[in-house]
Amino acid sequence: MLLKTSNINLLYLYSAGLRLGEVIELKVKDIDSKRMVIRITTAKGKKDRYVMLSNKLLSLLRDYYKEYRPKDYLFEGQKGDKYSARSIQAILKQALKKAKVTKKASVHTLRHSFATHLLESGTDIRIIQQLLGHNSIKTTQIYTQVSISKITEIKSPLDLL
């Protein structure tokens, strides 16, 4: 089953921790499937960076490419121009409603989730900082909200004595 553009957009946001504007500006040439990276050229602060390309996402992208044949922008609107931020926000709202998620969430929540899940899986915060394109580690720390379940797994140093 082929995924709609909308589903791919949301997967991109989460799988690489991208900002909404970065996904909208992605071009076909930014995908490097040989090195399994995505080149972000429209990053905040005007600095280019690379993020990982998920194997699962690459497989979906190949199907998507065969179906939609984008020419310049990876995600194109009906007229061949870039997809709009409003459209992606509306897609997330529909997905949340369909999944019966009542907790408030935004497109940016996917970026926060990406960072938090990486931290919880043991990824060094400096690597997360690089992936998110942050200049300051303090900014990255805001994104990496450690879940209560992870906190309860930690043993107090006192218990180790």
Number of helices: 8
Number of domains: 1
Q: Which superfamily, in CATH terms, is the homologous superfamily?
A: Intergrase catalytic core
Strand order of the largest sheet: 1-2-3
Main sheet properties: 3 strands, antiparallel
Mean pLDDT: 87
Low-confidence stretches are none
Structural class: mainly alpha
Rg, nearest Å: 17 Å
For the record, what CATH class applies? Answer: Mainly Alpha
Q: What is the end-to-end distance?
A: 55 Å
Q: Would you count the extended β strands for me? A: 3
Strand content: 5-15%
Summarize the entry for a quick read:
This protein has 8 helices and 3 strands. It is mainly alpha-helical. The chain has a 3-stranded antiparallel beta sheet with strand order 1-2-3.
Report on this structure.
- It is globular and about 65 Å long.
- The protein contains 8 helices and 3 strands.
- Helix 1 (5-16) packs antiparallel against helix 3, helix 1 packs across helix 5 (107-120) and helix 6 (125-132) crosses helix 7 (137-143).
- The model has no long low-confidence stretch (mean pLDDT 87).
- 23% of the residues are buried.
- Strand 1 and strand 2 (37-40) form a beta hairpin.
- It has a 3-stranded antiparallel β-sheet.
- The protein has a single domain, classed as hpI Integrase, Chain A (Orthogonal Bundle).
- The protein has 161 residues and is mainly α.
- 50% of the residues lie in helices and 6% in strands.
